[in-house]
Structure formats: C-alpha cells, structure tokens
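Table S4 entry, DUF559 domain-containing protein.
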Amino acid sequence: MHDGANRKVFDNARKLREKMTEPEKILWNFLRMKSLGVRFCRQHPINLSSILK
C-alpha cells in the first residue's frame, strides 16, 4: 500500500493502468522517454488526507 491508501483504491489504480486508452498509451510512451527531464507516476494511490494537511 502507498501512503495509507486502502486496498480498493490500490486495486482501482491497477485497473486504470492496465486498461489505458490509445491516447493515454501514446502520452505515457512519450513521458517514459524522459524528454522533459521529469519523472511521472501513473495512478499512484495515496491517502487524500495526507494531501489536505
């Protein structure tokens, strides 16, 4: 689990990563090339309350 995310949130994030649309696949292929010099994470589950603090 990541930062307090519950199993349901974690499973949903996995499903979103597995069932990307074609435009999402194109975007993530571009972002993986690291041409922007920044690292991106896909559907990384976190506990919302940790953001709102």
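The chain has one domain: 7-51.
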